[in-house]
Task: inverse folding
């Protein structure tokens, strides 16, 4: 599991500026996800790897080549990894979004603003990640840290299926049969393409998730996922759910390429061998 720590940090540094194009301030809010990404990605990749290994053993296929994968096993392992990622990643994303949104002026005017927001004007609500956590817990309770969890489930469970499964099959397709494992180039390309696919298709629910998590600082606009979808569609049309799809797809490639390559190479170093293995 520890092998994903360098890869996770690399993916954040590579992808974070593009992530914040949507809300300005290229490196605003990066310290919190960078500090937590080591644990987050280590657990997610570890869950996927161990779940895949468990399923392989359960089906008594230990003797098969390590590059032989069944779609059902990959699907189940990816779904479990997605659920685990939501439990860890929802608070991380919430804090990141709350800090990022402070880099742009508030555009809603004073209509419907909370009294506190009128007094603050465009002043930042949070002084940093720790203050943001403390404020949310104090005003919304522990449940407030999981604002948008339903939308994140709908984003991450299918999202990780379209992340790990393309990566594994692309790796298998690129790597010649005679090779013991994929080359760093194959890992980089397969990881990048998988990331672009996953983030591109996840954009509509990512929009909903981000709006729900940003809600509640100045305004309480949405009652839930369906209300957010309904209001967004009514005010901005269908195109709103594809806002940022180009940025998401473009940033998904270098982030995931760095993530998978860092993960695989660090595993190789820890094992003391010279063969890159799939997760």
Result:
């Amino acid at each position: 599991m520890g092998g994903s720590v360098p890869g996770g940090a690399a993916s954040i540094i590579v992808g974070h500026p593009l992530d914040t194009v949507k809300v300005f301030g290229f490196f605003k809010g990066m310290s919190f996800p960078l500090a937590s990404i080591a644990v987050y990605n280590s657990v997610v990749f570890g869950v996927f790897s161990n779940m895949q290994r468990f399923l392989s053993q359960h089906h008594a296929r230990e003797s098969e080549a390590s590059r032989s994968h069944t779609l059902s096993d990959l699907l189940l392992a990816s779904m479990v990894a997605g659920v685990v990622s939501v439990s860890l990643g929802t608070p991380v994303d919430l804090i990141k979004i709350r800090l990022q949104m402070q880099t742009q002026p508030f555009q809603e005017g004073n209509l419907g603003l909370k009294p506190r927001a009128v007094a603050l004007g465009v002043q930042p609500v949070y002084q940093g990640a720790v203050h943001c956590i403390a404020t949310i817990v104090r005003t919304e309770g522990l449940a407030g840290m999981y604002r948008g969890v339903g939308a994140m489930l709908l984003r991450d469970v299918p999202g990780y299926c379209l992340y790990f499964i393309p990566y594994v099959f692309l790796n298998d397709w690129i790597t010649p049969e005679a090779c013991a494992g994929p080359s760093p180039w194959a890992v980089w390309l397969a990881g990048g393409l998988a990331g672009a696919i996953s983030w591109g298709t996840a954009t509509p629910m990512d929009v909903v998730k981000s709006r729900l998590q940003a809600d509640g600082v100045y305004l309480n606009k949405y009652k839930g996922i369906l209300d957010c979808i309904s209001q967004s569609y009514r005010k901005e049309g269908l195109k709103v759910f594809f806002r940022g799809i180009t940025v998401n797809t473009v940033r998904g490639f270098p982030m995931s390429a760095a993530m998978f390559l860092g993960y695989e190479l660090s595993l190789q170093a820890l094992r003391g061998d010279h063969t890159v293995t799939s997760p």
About this structure: Residues 4-271 form a domain with the Mitochondrial carrier fold fold (CATH 1.50.40.10). The chain has a mean pLDDT of 79. The chain has nine helices and no strands.
